[in-house]
Amino acid sequence: MMRAALVLALCAGPALADPISERGYALGCGEGCTIVAAGTILTVSEEGTDPAVWKLLQGLEPLSAVSFQGELGEMGDISAPVTLSYLKVETDDPWQRQLRAIQGNWQPLGEETPFEVQISGLGWDEVTQGETTASDLIGAGAACADGTAPGGLVLSLRPLGGDTEEAACWQVLDVSATQMDLRDVTSDKGTVSYIRQD
């Protein structure tokens, strides 16, 4: 399920008007349902959404790959309301399994400072000594925000409430039940191995 901070950041906007046709990941439902697509958090409201689409959305597992069409409301910094007229579950999505596998709390191998990365839905929090020091929205796909495509799944981290020019990009090299290996594509950190903490 998406982090509470992200869900609370979404509010209803004015009249919906702009058409949207996109692919993304459904994260779960509360008062509304959340889909992340093209670097944007979309809140789907029951009102105005096709009843069959709403029922399908509510039955999906978190991080289900979907394609959809509908009407987009007024954009915020990183979020927007949307009503949907069409939804399809994309069973052949190449990244869904890995995105589900990276969920949880991870500590860099050999890290001495109490630091960990918490991944929930498509939210990435960096936590130092129990305090959240950075929060990002994960854009998952084959390429970084700047178009670099190193191969396989990459995670483009878009800062929440920060400068999008500072977005980091990690290539997912391998994920197991206990370890996650990522390569920093945007700096010289190279490969970082993380050990699961939960």
Structure in words:
The chain contains three helices and 13 strands, in the order αβββαββαββββββββ. The longest helix is centred in the first third of the chain and has 8 residues. By secondary structure, the protein is mainly β. The strands form two sheets. It has an eight-stranded antiparallel beta barrel with strand order 6-7-8-9-10-11-12-13. Strands 1-2-3-5-4 form a five-stranded mixed beta barrel. β8 and β9 form a beta hairpin. It folds into two domains: 86 residues, Nucleic acid-binding proteins (OB fold (Dihydrolipoamide Acetyltransferase, E2P)), CATH 2.40.50.140; 101 residues, Lipocalin (Beta Barrel). The two termini are 16 Å apart. Helix content is 10%, strand content 48%. The chain is elongated and about 50 Å long.
Summarize it.
The chain has 198 residues and is mainly beta.
Q: Mean pLDDT, nearest integer?
A: 89
CATH class bucket of the largest domain: Mainly Beta
CATH architecture of the largest domain: Beta Barrel
The total beta strand count reads 13
Please bin the fraction of helical residues. under 10%
Shape: elongated
Low-confidence spans: pLDDT under 50, at least 5 residues? 1-16
| Order of adjacent strands in the largest pleated sheet | 6-7-8-9-10-11-12-13
Number of helices: 3
CA-CA gap between termini: 16 Å
